[in-house]
Specification:
Layout (H helix, E strand, L loop, with lengths): L1 E9 L11 E8 L2 E6 L14 E5 L3 E5 L1 E6 L15 H8 L10 H17 L2 E8 L7 H14 L2 E8 L11 H4 L2 H9 L4 H19 L5 E7 L7 H14 L3 E5 L3 H10 L5 H8 L6 E5 L5 H10 L2 E4 L1 H6 L7 H7 L2 E4 L12 H11 L13 H8 L1 H6 L17 E5 L12 H7 L6 E6 L2 E5 L2 E2 L4 H47 L4
Parallel strand pairs: 1-4, 1-5, 6-7, 7-8, 8-9, 10-11, 11-12, 12-13
Antiparallel strand pairs: 1-2, 2-3, 5-14, 14-15, 15-16, 16-17
Helix pairs in contact: 1-17, 2-3, 2-17, 3-6, 9-10, 13-14, 14-16
């Protein structure tokens, strides 16, 4: 199947055009982009009406599919369950310290469908999903996850999260603020490290074999964060990911408490310096957040080619701090964008994230020449995101040979592009996704006029409402009780860390 969009407004996000829109023709054959021309008047001459669907695209704005380079699909279960809270207190509810009852494979499938539908309707065609079941995913839940993404038509890198450090040893000042009984119980909960590591290796190998059966699914390894895994485990995950040519995903310096913990654990070194010594930094490492980075950290990340994924809305919701947008770009660090999960955002809209990234950092510096510019935001949402998610070889730009992952905006729908002055600027600052008329993934039309075409989204969402209500009716009260039990101690640690940061003149 060949489709030719004639005289479209195109955003290529490539080396030639950058993020400047231009008029041209876009030809797709099967799953791939065949040609992109910007002649005036634009023409692709090697087609006939018989073998090609020709679209008058004068009123259409076509961009690469957006990439959500950091999310947690499972958190749709807990959307709206808490007020804005600091990460370490929010985690007590969203990732209960005493574990959760595993969800059924059907519920895993349904919750992933919900996340996929929200992504696709908002123009996201690729996600890096840091998935997780506590204590660990199973082959069955992994298959349900892959199948949901495949059924919906979304492209995904799925990173099974893993932890091998007890809760008490992941929290700064824990020895001082937690009762001895809690400390002892926390450390007793993780004893068979060799067994846990072996299980994760087996799960990863199983997931990799499964992913081979899905054209748009790739896997990644995800040691949750440096302070949540032992060094040996982290190094082994890095070695395995690098050997398989896969993404190594982690959370990095999301909060001030994590920075304080690093100071004691790493003998005065920063976490990034420690990762550098371990040989973990590199172009396949995707680090979410990166809020509390030092100047030296920026240099190490840039030199190694590590990607940092900015999650401005979850950072705001959790009060984590302000990522150093201009400093990261000046240092040459590749920056991508993510929504984070639906219980720490609570939306999976990358349009909201783009606008937040463009505007939030105007508060960083009175020198407006250092504020974010639209082109940086668009690169973060497309080509940089594709690389961070492990799909840079297939998506992120409108280039011949890349997959036809496209978002088609109707410039005459609604008001975002009316009047039309600068489509790129209006895409970031005015558009909320409501002008999207079509979404294509791998050359296949998956969304049209606000409807997912490959699944019965209404029926699946209705089923999810019923299944999730049953599951949470049993689980949520216990999780809330755990949060209430631990919150006073964690609050003490949190306020102490911020007090020390304030005393040192940090943000």
């Amino acid at each position: 199947m060949r489709t030719l969009w004639r005289n479209a407004l195109l955003l290529a996000c490539d080396d030639e055009h950058g993020t400047t829109p231009f008029r041209g023709d876009l030809l797709v054959d099967g799953s791939d982009i065949v040609s992109v021309t910007d002649a005036r008047p634009a023409r692709v001459d090697d087609v006939t009406e018989d073998d090609t669907t020709v679209v008058d695209a004068t009123d259409l704005f076509i961009t690469p599919g957006l990439v959500n380079a950091h999310t947690h699909s499972w958190e749709v279960l807990l959307r709206g369950t808490s007020e804005p809270l600091p990460l370490e207190i929010w985690t007590l509810l969203s990732y209960p310290p005493e574990g959760v009852e595993p969800a059924s494979e059907r519920l895993v499938y349904l919750r992933t469908i919900v996340a996929a539908v929200e992504a696709l309707l908002g123009g996201v065609t690729t996600v890096l999903d840091d998935t997780g079941e506590l204590p660990m995913q199973t082959p069955e839940s992994t298959e349900a996850l892959f199948r949901a993404y495949d059924d919906a038509g979304l492209r995904a890198t799925c990173a099974a999260s893993t932890v091998d450090v007890p809760l008490v040893d992941r929290l700064a000042f824990a020895e001082e603020v937690l009762p001895a009984s809690v400390i002892e119980a926390s450390r007793a909960a993780i004893t068979d490290l060799d067994g846990l590591h072996d299980d994760y290796v087996t799960l990863t190998e199983t997931a990799r074999a499964m992913a081979a059966g899905f054209a748009r699914i790739r896997v990644a390894l995800s040691p949750s964060a440096p302070m949540r895994v032992t060094d040996d485990y982290l190094v082994d995950c890095a070695r395995r990911a690098r050997g398989a040519g896969e993404v190594l995903h982690t959370h990095l310096l999301e909060t001030v408490l994590q920075r304080e913990l690093a100071r004691t654990r790493y003998d005065g070194s920063t976490i990034v310096e420690h990762l550098d010594r371990l040989g973990v930094l590199g172009p396949n490492l995707t680090a979410a957040h990166g809020v509390w980075l030092s100047d030296g950290d920026l240099e190490l990340l840039a030199a190694s080619g590590t990607s940092v994924v900015h999650n401005p809305l979850s950072n705001l919701r959790l009060g984590s701090g302000m990522l150093r947008w201009r400093d990261l770009h000046d240092a040459g660090v590749r920056v991508a964008l993510g929504t984070d999960g639906a219980s720490s955002n609570d939306s999976l809209s990358l349009h909201e994230v783009m606008k937040a990234a463009a505007l939030l950092h105007t508060l960083d510096d009175p020198d407006y020449r250092r504020w974010p510019v639209v082109g940086e935001v668009l690169r973060a949402a497309t080509v940089n995101g594709a690389r961070a998610a492990g799909w840079g070889d297939r998506v992120g730009s409108l280039l011949p040979g890349l997959a036809a992952d496209l978002v088609v905006y109707d410039l005459t729908a609604g008001t975002a592009f009316t009047p039309l002055h600068d489509a790129a600027r209006q895409l970031v600052l005015a558009e909320n996704g409501s002008s999207i008329s079509q979404v294509w993934v791998d050359g296949r039309l998956v969304v049209e006029n606000g409807r997912c075409l490959l699944i019965d989204a209404d029926a699946l969402l209705a089923e999810f409402r019923e299944e999730s209500a049953r599951y949470l009716e049993e689980q949520l009260p216990r999780w809330r009780a755990l949060q209430e039990r631990f919150e006073p101690a964690v609050r003490t640690a949190y306020l102490r860390a911020w007090g020390e940061a304030t005393a040192e003149g940090d943000r």
